[in-house]
Amino acid sequence: MNHTIAIDPQILDEAAEWLMQLHEGASNENTRSACERWRNRSPEHARAWARAELLMNKLGGLPFELAMPTLRRPTNTGRRAAVIKLAVLLAVVPAGWGTWRLIDAKEWTADHHTAVGERRSITLADGTRIALNTATAIDVYFDDRQRTVKLREGEILIQTAPDTAATHRPFSINSIEGNMEALGTRFSARQQDGITHIAVLEGAVRITPKNARSTQHVLQSGQQTSFTNRDIAASTEADDAVIAWLQDMLMADKMRLADFVSELSRYRSGIVRVDPAVAHLLISGAYPVADTDQALAMLASTYPVDAVTRLGGRWVTLIPR
């Protein structure tokens, strides 16, 4: 069974509803038979149900307190919201399962985290200030030898404070790809798909990839770059658009629509997809990430695209007008 084929969102919505019915504890033989008839209605129905079973197997592997609140909801608006969430998950199983699982796990276990669309700021014990962007999770490790923040997911802006301890303790950000040591600085760091992006606004940062300890690079103020666990890309001029999220904005300067939607989706629960016919459309402007519906409306009013919504607005497709 090929789980990567796109399926009509209406059918995914129906599959989510059947999944809820069969796992609410009140299902009987008639319910199971009706579900079987629905599943056999077409090959697409069969594929949707295969995804539902795959998702159920994954949910079954989660701790009880994580899996059951998703599936066992009373028959009210909360239950409908759960059905929509399941339908959205079905759209990305199995490719999106790992990301969904990891983000949920980070939200439960990280020292500090933000949900999708949420942004917040914290002040650490030494006075360092950290702003967390959407869907971000960090851990903080302070002792007599270190001041370390582990970036588990997402994006942060750091304004370091002088160390007041008797012995100098370096301030470092650890990402999956390596270490960033602040040299009296203000900088942003973003963890994304095997790459860490960094932009230095003040001071400097020493970058050391995890699997290339002999490779280091000091990034100066006004520079940005990205690195993997082995290599560091050439630095370029830092762009103010990198931290536009601090003003709840997403800046686009001749950005492909597909890339813009990928960025906007970070701030929105659900799925936004782009018809290939308009994926390469270049757009510019400032768009509000605190109101992604407004951002999509601005796109539709400025460019030759329409936003088609399904599943209560949780599924949006941008198509040619």
Automatic annotation (TrEMBL):
Coiled coil: none annotated. Pfam families: DUF4880, FecR. InterPro entries: FecR, FecR_N, Ferrdict_sens_TM. Transmembrane segments: none annotated. Residues 13-54 form the FecR N-terminal domain. Residues 111-206 form the FecR protein domain. This is FecR domain-containing protein. It comes from Herminiimonas aquatilis.
